[in-house]
Batch of 2 targets.
Target 1
Amino acid sequence: MTMTLDFAILPRFADALALGLWTTLKLTALCIILGVGLGFLIGLARSSRSALIRAIAGTFVEFFRGTPVLIQLFWIFFCLPLILGVELSNFVSATIALTLYMGAISSETFRSSLKAVGAEQMDACIALGLPRRAQILNVILPQAVLRAIPTLLSNCISLFKESALVSAVGMADLMFIGQNISNNTARPVEVLTAVALIYFTIAFPLTRAVTLIEKRMLRKLAA
Amino acid sequence: MDYILDLGAVTRNMDQLWQGLGVTLLLTLAANAIGIVAGFGLALLVLNRLAIIRIPAMLFVEFFRCTPALIQIVWFFYCVPMLFNVFLDPITMGILALGLNLTAFNAEAYRAAIQGVPREHLDAGIALGLSPAQRILNIVLPQALRNSVPVLLTNGIGIFQQSALVAIVGVADLMYQGKTLATETYRPIETFTVVALIYLAISFPVSQFVGWLERRRGYAVR
Amino acid sequence: MTAPIASAPLLCIRDLHKSYGEHIKVLQGLNIEMKPGERVVVIGPSGGGKSTLLRVVMGLEQIQAGSVSLGGKPYIDARGRKTVIDTELRRKIGMVFQHYTLFPHLSIMENLVLAPRKVNAESRASATERGRKILDRFGLAAKADAYPSQLSGGQKQRVAIARALMLDPQLMLFDEVTSALDPELVAEVEAVILQLAEQGMPMMMVTHDMWFARNVASRVIFCAGGVVVEDGPPEQVLGHPREERTREFINRVFHIKT
């Protein structure tokens, strides 16, 4: 079997791929916003004084980190409508699944960055007589959030990559459109390689940026 | 809600799920065998002084880390047969695709662990008159390997979860059997819940073990 | 009921007992009375409870027994298993730590004005104005808008002192404030403390620097095994100690140090 590669077919599909990418980016952005908010709340819940709240939040996180995202997505797409008795579009299912995923991994980020703010900072707060509210709002939380930023950014990149899964429930993201073109043209090498490169072109510079930001942040907070 | 739960549909067909789990575990273990060994070799290439060796190795790592695992798997299943004219059974293909992905992630873990060995330890090795090979073998590697264990385990359990993706290209793993069963029995809630719990039952103990390992190491360092 | 009289102690530490777990007893019935205007330097072997003493006085530690009063009013009291702390009174004490503990996410000026604004509800403008004066006095005026990570250790420690002074403390605690510094940066921090001493600021300090102790102290306390072993003017405790244990310690320290 001989095959010749013909990358010249790609420009014809540029518009379709761009549309898919746009969907991927929109979905990712939406789930980042919702997921980071959710993650922050779960992170706080996991540091709560009530053992019950801690246990519920902990179980939630372990469940979502301990199972494949694909099955979470399928569960929401196929099962949730049966339970709720309403149709869920693949967009809604995808948004719920990816938001829960982002929330679960980001809650861990918030929790560990809260822990990383040292006991000495707390001593300083007490020595200055800061009220409890100011200790939390002005000293502990801002540092925790700054510490969390690099990891949150890499969570965003993970989410961007995981979002390719939504093609499995028929949402027309970059992955889905790429696979369709690949099947219709019978040119998987050219099309799938192009799709992979598009993902790479976005994710790679971001990972570099995260490394730089992380170094700067750690230097700043080391004081 | 009109849906009435009936676990019988699942319990009657557990054999099918166990079969799928067998495939999933095979994929996971084989991919880990590849990833743990090849990842170390790749890390050494990434740390090589020669740019001509280092840069391709880094590109390999970054490519796998910066693209969705799904496209890697789909690409592998569609393109490798076409490009290289090799036709392997789906499970072997799955093992190779997951193994390559894990190789890249583990290479990064090894690299970080090797570079994480404090410079002072190497200086101390020089001061004690150890040869370069002795310094690598006796000072760098023992520490680096020990420090990389938690990340290797985390990556290993990650690939266990990512292995569910091969269901999309038709490998009959746990995910695939679950999806088939859910469709055949019209019992998605029971089936997908049971499948999810099976994944959790395996991931959870390992992730707890990693957490324990890291805490213990954290104390040991201090 | 009782109006504070001139000779009343500024700080009164009574029968402090502090242990970690069952076996590690750090303070074992420690008593100190400190008059207004005194500058007390606490010296002693490591593990002798010096730093713990300062942390207890600041209200950072739970104690098993004892009490601490400021100006005749108790503000730390061991009652049963709980340590009761009067946070209003505690605020009149300032403390500087070995590792600076500046807030890394805030600029120098923000570090200074945070507590006055939050504790005393002082306006930002007024707090900033006072902050500038203190920074100016410490030769740090140019650093007001810098962040802690941009400062040297000596500068950070001077900022930490300035930050504590913003609350007009009646007593300053210095816990090994020069121990983490490079040797060439020690002098600038000690100069600031001496400046405060000259202005009559009461202070209690733990230090390993015996020369500085002699310069700054009006009184030296030798602490070992969780109790006060010797207590007197610096010439006595550092120069002609009466207790055998003090003598041993002083000899050892001066032989190593010089």
Target 2
Amino acid sequence: MKVIKLEKKKLIPFLQFISQERELWAPVKKNDRIIYDLIEDFTCIDMNTTRTLLPPKKVIIPQQFNMFRVTGLGYESDYSHAVKKILFGIHPCDIHGLLILDKLFMQDHPDPYYIEARRNTLILGLSCWPDEHCFARSTNTHIIREGFDLFFTDLEHSYLVWVGSSAGDDLIKLKPEFFEQKPTDQDIQDFTYMQIERDTSYKTKINFISMPDLMELKYNETFWEKMGRACLGCGSCSMVCPTCNCYNVIDRHLISEETGERRRYWDSCTLCEYSEVAEGVNFRKNCADRLRLWYTHKMQAFISKYGKASCVGCGRCLLTCPVDINVLTVSKSLQGKDVYAYWNRLPREASDDKSSK
Amino acid sequence: MSKNKLRIGVYGLTGCAGDQLTILNCEDRLLKLFETVDVRSFLMAKSDNLEEELDIALVEGSVSTRSDEESVINIRQRTGSLVAIGICACFGGIQAVFTEPEEWAKQYEQVYGNRSVSSNAALQSRPVKAFVKVDYYLPGCPIHKEQFLALLSRLALGSTPEFHRAPVCLECKWQENDCLLNKNVLCLGPLTTAGCGAICPTCNLPCVGCWGPFEEANCWSEWNLLLDKDYDRNIIMQKMKSFSGTGFIQFFNTMKKERT
Amino acid sequence: MINQASKTAAIENPFLPEPARIVRSYHLIEGVKFFQIRIVDIEKALSFRYLPGQFVMLSILGIGEAPFSISSTPSRPGMLEFCIRDVGRVTNALFALKENSIIGIRGPYGNGFPVETMQNKNLIIISGGLGVAPLRSVLLYSLDNRDLFKDVTFLYGAKRPYEMIFRDEFLRLSKRDDVECLLTVDHDDTGTWTEKTGVVTSLFKYLAEIEPGETYAMVCGPPVMYKYVIDELLKFKIPKHQILMTLERRMKCGIGKCGHCAIDYIYTCIDGPVFSYWDVIHMRELI
């Protein structure tokens, strides 16, 4: 893979230049939160963020969008979410997240809404530094070697730029004068030291090796029930997870409008409605069962099918769940370790009928 | 007016009339709406109201007086389906905060003393469902235009309305907000039905529960979580009670038992 | 602005329904209606290929979409038949539609019954109540291709005579000698029932000796039925992977994308809805 070099001060002008005919989406700070957003003011791009609140899946498949319109007798696809975009500032773990979604959405029975947006989005990755919640080292997603068009590695005064695709190469060719074709020996040394230091900076560690077996062996452990009792059923974990792909649809045809539409929106398997079938029959009435499904999918099913966990170690669930149900506490529980978490100290309701409900 | 059009009545019991106002606020779409359905009665919008048979009655407000009770029974008798609109009609709203009869009686005495009120006696405020059968609920304080139009459109198609059954948190995450509970703010998002678009948390204000209790609300966990964050139980109870009307009554009853 | 999304994608949109006409609909029993549906585009109607046991998604404008198993046989192309119980929003709306109404259809989805593997084998089809909907497809298919299969046995139990779906059709079948058709009702309160009475498992005693290894059993019915029927089939020593059942789940996409029908690590919509008993004992929450 070709590696070239870009002076730091030239990055913004480069981004400005290449986004003339495409939307540029990048992390920005908005009301104290870091989110991926459409960039209008290029000076607002947050180059140093650890993680965005929602993962970049929202740039490909928005939280909610119309799948098609119903006009008279016909149906008309609506791909308006899939405009040409550049997604800049995406970290290795999140690129891995997209690669996992690619497997789910693009293999067997491909989803055109995903494919269309994915095809129209250029991925410009950016290196990052872990905080205490990152555990991408454990999921082996802290380094990325595929799935991007360009990847920028921050070396204090300049970026080393990996050119990952011919589309990425075309971007470089728009402004070749911005780049130095060969990194210096010093750059290579800086890069090497940086990688080693970064590698050792992951404080949160999870051992995923025996997860599928442990999920099976500990299916009936009491910690599931404890988590189920504490789970607020808010669905936030699914929303912030870079690999959660579930959705729901709702049909709408307002009497005040000429056409109807089918709306698709992010859903979570932790919601009660999720597994309900006709006549209110629910195969997973219990919150514990729903949580177990979530973790079975991430840490057992996906591993069985694709050889790795459907978790990229981004740490979002650790920061999001108000009751401490997350990949870290679940995996610790599976490994039989003591867990300090809200769900573990929540007392049982005296008139506890939750489990029998 | 055509006979085939859906006959609709919009009524207000005890409430702020904000839901009826929201309907009027549909503005340009309202005209189209009024062309499509036959609005028989809507006191806030028109004067030539016919109190006859209806296909759909939209009822706002809680039942707080004898005359409220009489009207709602009368409306029920002449309508095909009845939709409770707004938090007051759905759960009793703010005025149903005194959910316990003794508490309410004490309050009543403080206000009215021993005087007998003959013309329109006050009742302990209750949601519409405490008096008549309610077919559909459209919560909100006030209701959301889009949800109202979606509900009416479904009913006009002869089908049942459908909303995404989730708590506010889901929409809050769509809006990309940091969880306020994680910032130790007393937020009722997890206990509250979605539909508002999480407007309060998006403005960094906690959810006060104005869309009413979520069907799967885990009160026990939220309650203890807030205690864990050093909130006083009376404060938590006050917050949980303010909009939920009779919605959390079962939880409060179990809590009472727990204390004794 | 130059940047505009295209109206068409690189691949065909599998989520887009195809307009289809309700050609015929009538009540089979109370609460259950029969629908004949034909895709409006005649070429697409004739080229619509499916397997017994597969399902489609039916859409009603502005109301929603739901999965329905196909009750007709692919050996009679052009027309699709469904046997639908009025249980929810979409079925309510379907019931209210008049003949000649247009609905949306997409599919077929799911694995269906392994009709090729079952060739030259004995078939035992056991259904209870509305469970006959997907099984009628495989039953008619086996009769239309009678020489492809060895003995075909059809057992069907309903609560009461007037709750037996396709009763007249099956009564005619019971007169044929190339298929063993045994019908039963739990109670006969009409006094006119000429077939068997008792639960569906009571029909097993009428079965001739079977070669278990050479037999496939297909089961569909209310959840309570499975355990008893499977116990009987195991007594006959039919291998677990040759006992097939079809399951129902909530589905929003039909192609393994929305996640709603997930059970452990399988998706009912693409890995099912037909599962073998061997699959089922390895998965929790399945029935």
